Amino acid sequence: MNAPKTGSKADRDVLRHDMTTAGCTVADIAIEMRTRYRMRPREAWRHARGWTLQETADQITRAARPGEAVAADASLVSKWEKWPAPSSRRPSLAVLFAMAAALECRVTDLLDMEDRRAFPDADLRIVSSQVAHLAQPTAVSSPPPPAPEPTHSDLVQLAADESATWAQWAEASNVGDVALEQLMAETRALAVDYLTSDPVPLFVRTRALRDRVFGLLEGHQYPRQSTDLYVVAGYLCGLLAWMSSDLGQLRDADTQGRTAWLCAELAGHNDLRAWVLSTRSKVAFWDGRLREAITFARRGASFRTMGSVQVLLACQEADAWSDLGAEQEALTALGRAEDACSAATGEDEVGGIFTCHRARQENYAAAVQLRIGRPADALRAADNALALLSTQRVRAYGTEAQIHISQAAARLTTGEAEGALEALMPVLALPPDQRLAPVTKRLNELSSGIGQPHSGTAAVGLRAAIEEFCVNSVPRNALSPGAGSA
Question: Which residue of 10, 201, 330, 368 pairs with 321 in a disulfide if CB–CB is 3.0 to 4.6 A?
């Protein structure tokens, strides 16, 4: 069996067990922990007891002296342990005495020379006076006298030092405005790259950037900087949700969507709220939860936003209504998409997958018209979409594939099996790493619609080509087990 990694929990547990068995005290174990693992004294004493951060927080809260309530949690304990390092927090005297009582040690056992240099002199005098008093022998039958009270001068200086220390902590930030600008720029690049790049490598890059942003949010920054970080995190989780859905991982996509929504709420950002709800509508649609998809789309449309998100939300509502067979509701929603396109102002904050250009709008219109039985209108919309897409500098292969599928379905409906096969040739030529779940699902729907009226050679060849395409697609081949969750 391999030895546990040095400093790991398993390694610490072995050390604590061996030293306890050898008759060592908790103080001996704490000293060994400090020496061997280079821990701060407060962390060493916690590990000598074998407590987690939360267990320690609970013990500290219970051990607070009368009149000195201490509300500890795991995050605060971690910051108290690391002080005076960056992104830490100085423990107050009340905390130190409660911590010492909980760990059953002296306050001075929890302080090293680095702590003493950083602590205000008034604090150190109070600690020294109380520790010196506790060290004096007392009669067994007599209760210990009350600890000496600090002087008025000490209390005033202590209060000033505490305020100054807090102000220093509040003023510090782990992220600057330039860094925030760079994070948003990287998010925009990922959203644009997703239109043309293979999804799995981009998923890895997006996840790594999200983790960087999450790490920053766990630190300390100004409130406005926290808001900006939540916006970036929300868009990144939304992008991961979109990718997860395209990779066929709908449950994981839902999880990412919920986290993205939390970020949008924490940021109070209406554009992000709308884009997240658009993403969640998309996930619900492909998961067959059509009423839920409509609800998400309508909820997103209730926010006052900039850019093109209102266009996409109306298109998504029309998509879901058409799949339910509700023709009038679908056409009404398409009309709202037109109105939203005419009324749109401002630019989309991120762009890329988080934008709805005219070609994308026409793609939705083509799919809706097909489902409500208007193949001629569907073909017209698909032709318009391809013409618009040809003028764009960045052509989204997923959108283009779905336009060709609508084109093929419209031709197949009118008995043009050969024309359908011709329309599908660009789709069938996609490499396996770009055969996304929505594309394979729409192709399977098309294949199932090839019945007896289209039983000629072209129809048979079309069905065989679709089957081969879907078998070798990214949802089946690209993700190893567990890679879709993050």
Answer: 330
Distance CA 283, CA 290 (A): 10
What pLDDT does 278 receive?
Answer: 98
Under DSSP, is residue 455 helix (H, G, I), strand (E, B) or coil?
Answer: coil
pLDDT higher than threshold 70 for residue 144? no
CA-CA-CA-CA dihedral for 433, 439, 441, 443, to nearest 10: -110
| Side chain identity at residue 149, one-letter code | E
**Residue 203 and residue 319 share a domain:** yes
Q: CA 396, CA 137: separation in Å to the nearest integer? A: 81
Confirm whether 402 is domain-assigned. Answer: no
Which two structure tokens, joined as six digits, stand for 263?
């970020």
Mark whether 183 and 328 lie in a shared domain: yes
252 within some domain: yes
CATH of the domain at 290: 1.25.40.10
Structure tokens at 184: 């948003």
Domain boundary among 102, 134, 166: 134
Q: Please give the structure tokens belonging to residue 264.
A: 């949008």
Place 376 in a pLDDT band, splitting at 50, 70 and 90: very high
- Domain limits at 239? 177-356
Within 10 angstroms of residue 468's Cβ, the number of other Cβ atoms is 10
Q: Is 389 inside a domain boundary?
A: no
- For 10, other C-beta atoms within 10 Å of its C-beta total 11
What distances in angstroms separate CA 217 from CA 101, 193, 223, 224, one per listed residue?
Answer: 33, 25, 11, 12
182/288 Cα distance (integer angstroms): 38
Examine the fold and report which residue of 356, 376, 395 is the final residue of a domain before the chain moves on: 356
Other residues' Cβ atoms within 10 Å of the Cβ of residue 353 = 24
How many contiguous H segments (helices) and E segments (strands) does the chain have?
Answer: 24, 0
317-321 long-range contacts, CB within 8 A, separation 24+ = 317/281, 317/293, 318/364, 318/365, 318/368, 319/285, 319/293, 319/364, 319/367, 319/368, 320/281, 320/285, 320/290, 320/291, 320/293, 320/294, 321/294, 321/368
Is there a contact between 276 and 350 (Cβ–Cβ < 8 Å)? Answer: no
Instruction: Identify the bridge partners of residue 351 per DSSP, sorted by sequence position.
Output: 354
In a domain, 377, yes or no: no
Residue 122 half-sphere exposure, CB side, CA atoms within 13 Å?
A: 16
**Cα(47)–Cα(446) distance, rounded to whole angstroms?**
62
464 is written with which tokens? Answer: 């065989």
Token digits of residue 411: 């031709």
Q: Which pLDDT does position 465 carry in this prediction? A: 81
Q: How far apart are CA 269 and CA 16, in angstroms?
A: 49
| pLDDT category of residue 169 using cuts at 50, 70 and 90 | low
DSSP secondary structure letters along 143-165: PPPPPPPPPHHHHHHHHHHHHHH
